[in-house]
Amino acid sequence: MLFNHAPAGVSYTFDEPNLVSAAGLAPMMALAQNAGLAELAQDRVTVHRTGADKGANAGAKVSSIVAGMVAGADSIDDMDVLRHGGMKSLFDSVYAPSTLGSHLRAYTFGHVRQLDAVGTRFLASLGSYAPLLPVAPSATGAAAMTFVDIDDTVIEVHSAKKQGAGFGYQGSRGLNALLATASTAEASPVVVAQRLREGSAYSARGASRMVGDALAATAKIPGTCGPVVVRADSAYYNAKVAKAAADGGAKLSVTVRMNKRVKTVIAGIQEDAWTKIQYKNSIYDETTKTWISEAEVAEVPFTAFTSKKKSLQVTGRLIVRRVLEKNAKKLAAGQNTIFDVYRHHGFFTTIDASALDTAAADRMHRAHAVIEQVNAELKAGPLAHMPSGIFQANAAWLAITTMAHNLMRTTAAVIGGAMARARALTLRARIIGIPARIAHRARKLILHLPTDWKWVQAFEELWAKALGPPPAAKST
Question: In angstroms, how far is the first alpha carbon of the chain from the final one?
Fold first, then answer.
């Protein structure tokens, strides 16, 4: 594409009051309103009762922040993206960024927990508009399961004055966000629980309660069926997390720590017990800087947490994957080894072998990495940084971020087809960021959208679901 004008022949002026840069917000926020976002926040968030003058109208203000995040805002100041052109013709209660920031700074820990409750109910309501956790009717094995993944991520900050900022396992100053997602083989993850913690928090802090909350929220999503599996990495290999999963009726799949007992068990696996597996896609090994396309797996019966009292011990399967060691620094310097040397990766699961054999269980557990996509997507959007110096304001920001994420996931599911699993950036480029000119005619508001927009059908699918007539009642 080439610019086709002489500089002297082009000019600009900001004088059109009927233009909007994000017309896709209209059906999306209509969908959010239909799902009860504003009403839930207004009824359940009681910050206005603390005497804070900016605590009123929580429903409209939380909805405004969600809309700003959906449009691409990653700070309080960016909420000005909602205040231009004809936006006030499309939306009511369009607040200034300073008002929204003051509202968040009025939150306490209890108010953030109220937001958590709003988010859980909002997600359940969104599930009535589109299948968020679909499972194919004839699915078996892992394809018939719902996966709840838990992980934490450090959101880097650059000021020691931010409350709760500290140096965590990444070695950088930040705040720690603990997230739990739910997904199936047919659907991208939605966030079912979250918590903001101080930057120096260890990964498993509060994880058992998070697992309980996540399983409860997942169960409320319409259409959730089949066995539920909690997946986690080795940071969450502890008896409390295992008990929380069992209490919630879920199976467990968690990476084990390579302690002395686990190493002894692995060493005792007979050579003929190993089965070769071929990866569907090669995996890049950061340690050896090579691509790995095959490995071997084996399993043995295992009782986890034997150092705990009997009621906390869990019986299941220890599944081990081994790959040939190719790191020259770890091999004998200057000479070949007499026998093959392997690196081992083990995880413990309570899933019965009749449901998933060794190789299938290994594939299922490696798919835990899907939560990293959510972490990356959120940190490329609203969680690019924490916008406030006050901890609870940032905790509220995280809670609202998950609502915006789940709204976008629902939007993609409503559209369906090739867009059903579209990421946030794709939705913003194709659906949300459509420019429009507003016209008023015969007491109707008309959005004039660009001709030849490639994703017209996707936009129409969303509009019909959010603003079209209700479906005809089914006869009984």
Answer: 58
Contact predicate 163/389, CB 8 Å = yes
CB 462 within 8 A of CB 27: yes
Q: What is the pLDDT of residues 110-159, one digit of tens each?
A: 999 999 999 999 999 999 999 999 998 889 999 999 999 999 999 999 88
Decide if pLDDT at 433 tops 90.
Answer: yes
Mean residue pLDDT of the chain comes to 91
CA angle 362, 151, 284 (to 5 degrees): 50
What is the rounded distance in angstroms from the CA atom of residue 388 to the CA atom of residue 162?
7
**Res. 288 pLDDT band, cuts 50 70 90:** low
pLDDT digits (tens, 9 = 90+) for 63-107: 999 999 999 999 999 999 999 999 999 999 899 999 999 999 999
Pairing of strands 228-232, 146-156: parallel
Tell me the one-letter amino acid at 258: M
- In angstroms, the CA 464 to CA 466 distance is 6
Is pTM beyond 0.85? Reply is: yes
User: How far is it, in rounded angstroms, from Cα 396 to Cα 288?
Assistant: 41
Least confident of 9-18, 265-274, 291-300, 410-419: 291-300
Instruction: Write out the chain in H/E/C secondary structure.
Output: CCCCCCHHHCCCCCCCCCEECCCCHHHHHHHHHHCCHHHHHHHHCCHHHHCCCCCCCHHHHHHHHHHHHHCCCCCCHHHHHHCCCCHHHHCCCCCCHHHHHHHHHCCCHHHHHHHHHHHHHHHHHHCCCCCCCCCCCCCCHHHHCEEEEEEEEEEECCCCCCCCCEECCCCCEEEEEEEEEEEECCEEEEEEEEEEECCCCCCCCCHHHHHHHHHHHHHCCCCCCCCEEEEECHHHCCHHHHHHHHHCCCEEEEECCCCHHHHHHHHCCCHHHCEEEEEEEEEEECCCCEEEEEEEEEEEEEEECCCCCHHHCEEEEEEEEEEECCCCCCCCCCCCCCCCCEEEEEEEECCCCCCCCHHHHHHHHHHHHHHHHHHHHHHCCHHHCCCCCCHHHHHHHHHHHHHHHHHHHHHHHHHCHHHCCCCHHHHHHHHHCCCEEEEEECCEEEEECCCCCCCHHHHHHHHHHHHCCCCCCCCC
